[in-house]
Recover the amino acids of this structure.
């Protein structure tokens, strides 16, 4: 049985199957952006809860956001990255924080 992605060609009377190259999906970075209102504790909470960072990793990312203006929370496929942005934005709003997240190609 042949795979639908396989192409067939004949060589010396023998049917050969060749596979098409499959491209990897483009990955997206989920970026956290600094603001003057979201607490550092909430950012660490978001990073541990939604991005499965350890406490140490979360504090490192939070300090990067604080000092450099933005930091990478995680890298995912486009659908997952957009879903994380929406989930975390909703979570931050329910906690009264204007935390901004974006998804950009890695």
């Amino acid at each position: 049985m042949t795979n639908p992605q396989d192409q067939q060609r004949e060589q010396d009377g023998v049917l050969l199957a060749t596979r098409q190259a499959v491209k990897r999906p483009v990955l997206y970075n989920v970026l956290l952006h600094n603001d003057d209102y979201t607490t550092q504790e909430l950012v660490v909470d978001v990073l541990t809860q939604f991005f499965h960072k350890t406490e140490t990793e979360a504090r490192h990312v939070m300090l990067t956001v604080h000092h450099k203006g933005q930091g990478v929370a995680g890298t995912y496929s486009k659908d997952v990255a957009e879903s994380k942005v929406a989930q975390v934005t909703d979570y931050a709003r329910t906690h009264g924080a204007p935390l901004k997240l974006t998804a950009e190609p890695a």
Summary: Strands lie at 6-11, 14-19, 27-33, 70-77, 100-105. The CA atoms of residues 37 and 106 lie 27 Å apart. The chain has one domain: 23-105. The chain has a mean pLDDT of 91.
